[in-house]
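task queued by scheduler; priority normal; single chain, no ligands, no partner chains; default sampling; output format set to structure tokens
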Amino acid sequence: MVFLLSVLRFLTFSFMLVLGFEIMGNPLGWPQTFFGIWAMYLLQIIAPTFSVFDTAVKSGGALIIFQGLIPAPIIIAAILLQYLLSQILPLATGLMIRPSSIQIK
């Protein structure tokens, strides 16, 4: 079950990053982009980091893998978009919504 959830998470975030690349104007096709993203995630797994530096490692890996294929501003913008949607937006939503069951005295 844990393996299935890990694969589902991997596919979800890969698809989300491919969409980010497409929104930013990716000149590559979907298969080439998916292959590069999977290689980028492999680099990210090999280099263990704190969660704070995850985006820096991810963008650095993406710049290395897609070097010469996709312009650097598109890569950085797509990584930043994924970071905002997957980490900052849920954090901000969680901070703004206080469950009614918690009573602060």
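post-processing summary
- The mean pLDDT is 82.
- The first helix runs from residue 2 to 23.
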